[in-house]
Description:
The protein is an alpha/beta fold and about 425 residues long.
Amino acid sequence: MRILELSGETRKDILSSLLKRSPNNYGQYEEAVGEIVSHVKAEGDKALFAYTKKFDKFDLNAQNIRVTRAEIDEAYKSLDADLIEVMKRSAENIRAFHTRQLRNSWFDAKEDGTILGMRMTPIEKAGVYVPGGKAAYPSSVLMNVIPAKVAGVKEIIMTTPPDADGRIAAGTLIAADIAGVDTIYKAGGAQAIAAMAFGTESVPKVDKVTGPGNIFVALAKKAVYGHVSIDSIAGPSEILVLADESANPKYVAADLLSQAEHDELASAILITTSKELAKKVSDWVDTFVNQLSRRDIIQKSLDNYGYILLAEGMQEAIDTVNQIASEHLEILTANPFEVMTKIRNAGAIFLGEYASEPLGDYFAGPNHILPTNGTAKFFSPVNVDDFVKKTSIISYSREALEKVHRDIEVFAESEGLTAHANSVRVRFEES
Length: 431
C-alpha cells in the first residue's frame, strides 16, 4: 500500500478522491434510472415484468412473482444446517441490540391543564431490497428486517432479483424467513424500487424502502424519495483504522482487506503515528493479497482508494478521522476508549484488537447498514427509529391558553398571519 505523509494537501486530495465514489456523482445513469422508474409508475406490472425479462432473463408474471412456502422449505434443505444455526444466533443478537433502542410514547401534564407529548407509531409497511447474483448477502437481510420487526411494522415485504430460472439464493430466503419477512417478490434493480415506491398490481406500495444495491438501485431510491422514505443512498464500503505503535500490524492489514474485497470502489485507509507500523502493515497487506480469493478486486481497490497516512501526532490523526467520517472506524491504540471520546464522525466504531470489523458485519448485533461517503457527519446506522413515526400531542385548557394567548397573537401578527391570531383571539372575546 502507498504510504503518505499526512498534510493539509494530502487530506484535501484524499477527501476529494473518496467523494468521487458517491452515488451523487453518477449523473450519467440518472436518465436511464428515471425512465425505468417512470415506466413502472405508469404501467405497473407490465413494466416490472418487462424489465425483469430484459435484465434478469426471467419470464416474470403475476403467478410466479411471489416466493412460495415450498421454495423457502426447499432452501432450508439445501443450506448447511450449521450455517442456518449461525444465522439464527446472529438474528438473536441483532434483535436484542435493537430492542434496547425502543422508545415509549410520553406525555407531560401540568396542573393548569397543559398536556404535551410525543406518540411513537410504527410505519404500516416497509419494503426491503436485497441484491441478488454475486452480491447475495443474508446478513443484510437480517440487518434490514429485524429493526423493522422490533419497531412493530405490520407488514414487511422484500424484493430481490431472480436468476434466469426464477430462483433466489437459499441463504437470502432463509434469512428472510428467520427475520420475519411477510412476502418475498422476485424483482430486482431500479424497477423493484419503483414497484415498492408506487405499487403495482402485484407489489404493494410501502411507506419506506431500505437496503443496499448497485448504482441503479441507489439512484432509484434517490428518485423515489419523497413518495416514500428511504434509509440512505449508500456508496461503496469503506474502513478506516486509527492505530499507534501498540497495534498488531498483521491484524491491521487483515482488517483493511476485509473491506477492500467488497468491490473496486471500496476504500481502506490506515492513519497512524508510527512509521514502523506503517511499513509492517504494508508488508502484511502484500502477503495477504496474494493469499486471498478476491485478490484482483482487492488490488484494484487498494490502487484506487487504499492509503496509509503518517500523522505527526494523535491529535492530527483524530482530526483527519473526523473529516473523513468513515463508515467503519477501528481504533487500535494503547487506550482506544479514551481516543473514542474524541471521535465525532463515524458510522460504527470498533475498539481494541479483538473487535474487528466483520464482528459488526455478521454477529455482534449493531446494524451494519451504515452511512458512507462522509455522511456519518449527519446520518446514523439503520435503527428502530427508522421505522417509527413521531407525532406531537398538544392539549391546553382554557386557563392554560388564557395565560399565553396575547403572546401568540403578537407573534402571529408580526408575521402578517392575522387569521392565526384571530383563531386564538376569538376564544377570549365576549359573545
